Amino acid sequence: MKQLDLLIRSLGKFGLWLNAALGFAFLYLPIFILVIYSFNNSRFNAIWRGFTLDWYRNLLQGATNDTITDVMIWEALKNSLLVAVISTIIATIFGTMIALALERFRFPGRTILEAILFLPIIIPEITIGLSLLVFFSLSFQLIENFLGIRLVLGLPTVIIGHIAFCISFVVVTVRARVAELDPALEEAALDLGANEWRTFFRITLPLIWPGIFSAALLAFTLSLDDFVITFFTAGVGSTTLPLFVYGMIKFSVTPAINAISTLMLIASLMLVISALFVEQLGNQKKT
């Protein structure tokens, strides 16, 4: 019986390791193949013809093919970075304010506000994109009818859509950090004569700063990689990098797409590592 029990335990451990390995392979093997084929010396992704850096070199120096140039790529990247930076700053500021209000105060409508904030996290992105498109269409029509001002979709509408989507993630991340903060520290500062603003900037903000930074990086990554919401809210001249990659697929599927995706993957990984590093530093200071 003892040997049978040991055998069952061994098989159970092997099954857990195998399940984990298959799960990670399912998630990350396609990404690994994408990175490998970004160095493919062939215009077709399905055929491996050798190693080359030409696709990365073309992104920095020349045309990727006959119809798509590096100028288009960098213009799309500039739009993505502009949208991501502005939406991150605004979403982080308002998200932090909302997180502090929800965690520190009790006010009428608090439960309703919490439910509304969780909607962008729960509902599909395509629903958010369609809702924003309908909202902008009706709003622009009303403005044109009453004020005579004609507005169209563009980068401002994309930024508004990204803010509406990212602010919920900022609230959840920052609120988790605020919940760990001991209220006695703020009460001690108030007892020693500091007002609310001085207490916030000298006590609260430094303690929750790692959470704010992590939330900002998360919002930046979500905005930079977003496709669905951008697809419904973008107009002429507001093509972001994900939309540009989607457009490239319509022309030809070349390793240039893999190279762009690899660069975006590296940037996302750097942001995640930075967030984890800052979070670790904040925990060390807290202890």
Overview of this protein structure:
This protein is mainly α. Helix content is 79%, strand content 0%. The protein contains eleven helices and no strands. It is globular, with a radius of gyration of 24 Å.
Entry keywords:
globular, single chain, mainly alpha, 287 residues
> Low-confidence parts, pLDDT < 50 over ≥5 residues?
none
Q: Regarding quaternary structure, how should these chains be classified?
A: single chain
Question: In one word, what is the shape?
Answer: globular
Largest sheet: none
Write the layout of secondary structure elements.
Elements: H1 2-37, H2 54-60, H3 70-104, H4 110-122, H5 125-147, H6 155-180, H7 183-191, H8 196-225, H9 228-233, H10 241-251, H11 255-286
How is this structure best summarized?
The chain has helices at residues 2-37, 54-60, 70-104, 110-122, 125-147, 155-180, 183-191, 196-225, 228-233, 241-251, 255-286. It has 287 residues and is mainly α.
